[in-house]
Structures are given as C-alpha cells and as structure tokens.
Amino acid sequence: MQYRQTVSFNRLDKITKTANQIMEVHHHPEIHHERKKFKEYFLEFLMIFLAVTMGFFAETIREGISEHGRAKEFASSMIKDLEEDTIQLKGYSTYFNYAANKLDTFMSLLAIDEPKNIPSGKLYWYGLFGAAHRYFISNDATFQEMKSSGSLRFFEKQIEKEVEKYDRLYRSLQSFEQITQGLYTELRKCRAQFFDFKYLDAANGLYQKRKSTSFPASIDSFLRSNPPLLSADKLLFNQYLELSRSRYFRPYNIAYSDSLIKQATLLITDLKKEYHLENE
C-alpha cells in the first residue's frame, strides 16, 4: 500500500513539473527586436511628410485649376451682361441729356415772354421733357449668383474690386431714381394742369419718331402750330419750371450713368485680358 502511494506521488510530481514547463514556454514569450537607428526613423518621417505635403499641393493645384475654370465661365457671362448694360446706359444717358437741353430751351422761352404769347406748339414740345423719365435695370444675374455663392473670390483681387465698384455705382443710381420718383410724379400732376393730354401725346409721338427721315419737317410744323392749352396761367408754368429745375439742377443720374459706362468698359477690357476672352 505504501509503495503504491509513493508511485502515485512520483507520477503526480512528474505531471506537475511537465505542466509548469509548458506554462513557462507559452507564458509571455520573449521576443528580441533589433532597435532601429535614428537615421531610419528620420527617413520614415521624411517620406511620410513628403507624401502628405505633395498630396496637399496636388489638391491645392487641382482646386486652383477648377476655380480658374469657373472664373473664366463667370467672366464670359459677366462680359455679356456688361455689354447689354452698356447699350442700355448709353441710351439712358443720351435720353436725359436730350431732355435737359430741351428743358433749357423751355426755360429760355418763358424767361422772355408770357405763355400766352408763345406758340403753344413750342410749349408742348419743349415742356414735354420736364417730366422725362426712364429706368435703368442692370443685367446683374451673373454678379448676384457669384455674390450669393461666394464665387467672387475666384476673380483676381483687382477685378473683384472693379466688380464691386460697378455694383456700388449702380446702387447709387438706383437710390437717386428712388429719391426723385416723388418729384417725377409731382411734375406730371403739375403739367396736367395746363397741357392737354391729346397734344402732349402728339409731342411724345414726334419724339419717338425722331430717328426717321421725316422728323425735321414734322417737328418744324409742330413748333409753328398752336394746339390749345388747358391754361396759360404763368403761376402754373412757373411751378412746373421750379420742379423741373430741382430735378435737373444736379443731374446725378446722368453723372452716374456716365460713370457706369466708363466702369463697365474698363471691366470688360480687364476680364477679356485676364481670362483670354478677346475673341469672344
């Protein structure tokens, strides 16, 4: 019996030692790595840095090319808008200069004589322009799109400043037109007190035909005519003259329109040059 127990303990001891050996082998195996030199770490860092930097530059160049392409598209569209504006503005400026000259003649006539002693055809014709009126609405669809989307930054700084200056001038003209809107209404009311609409409309019809070959003869005939006035009251004519002088004494609308034409011309030239659109 004692012998058997001794053998059992010996076997148990062997099994325990064997298990311990196995655990020592598998528990936290010790792996030895050769430490890298500083030069190798530096080279790895440099390669990663160059890869990131080149990627950044490539993305920047790609965005720059894309933005330049978009800027060229916007430039082409804006040039068309500005060319249409220029045509409108030249007509606008010409119209008000013409009206101002005719109003000067109207004032000279009434400064010399009483309304009743002046051929009424002259009064109707020259008096027509005291209440002359015309609007200018800019073709600014491209500008508004660029402004709302933040795309104005695609343009070169100098061109961006020129675009903003053009917009400021346009808004100034709009402000002036809004201010004088009430004066224009008062002028029409005043004029209606002494001019018969039928003959005033005939005078306006002549103006609309001023570019026809028959205009000179037609206007001479009208100036010599004596269509009836609703009133020859000098006070009414004087009131009309004062309101007209208030409107034309400082013709800011003409000054603004001329400045807009000049700015539009400069902007068109610079856009074509910057984005190589001379042949468009």
Structure keywords:
single chain, 280 residues, mainly alpha, 76% helix, disordered N terminus
Q: How would you describe this protein?
A:
The protein has 280 residues and is an all-alpha fold. It has helices at 2-26, 38-112, 120-127, 141-149, 157-191, 197-208, 215-224, 234-248, 252-274. The chain has one domain (48-274). Helix content is 76%, strand content 0%. It has 9 helices and no strands.
Which range best describes the helical content: under 10%, 10-25%, 25-40%, 40-55%, 55-70% or over 70%? over 70%
Biggest β-sheet: count, sense, barrel? none
* Overall strand count: 0
Q: Helices and strands: which structural class?
A: mainly alpha
Strand content: under 5%
Look at the structure and give the mean pLDDT: 83
Low-confidence stretches: 1-9, 22-29
Q: Enumerate how many helices there are, as a single number.
A: 9
Oligomer designation: single chain
Shape designation: elongated
* Rg on CA atoms, Å: 44 Å
From N to C, what is the helix and strand string? HHHHHHHHH
Number of domains: 1
Distance between the amino and carboxyl termini: 117 Å
List the helices and strands and how they pair.
Blueprint: H1 2-26, H2 38-112, H3 120-127, H4 141-149, H5 157-191, H6 197-208, H7 215-224, H8 234-248, H9 252-274
Task: Provide a quick synopsis of the model.
With 280 residues, the protein is mainly alpha-helical. Helices cover 76% and strands 0% of the residues. The chain contains nine helices and no strands.
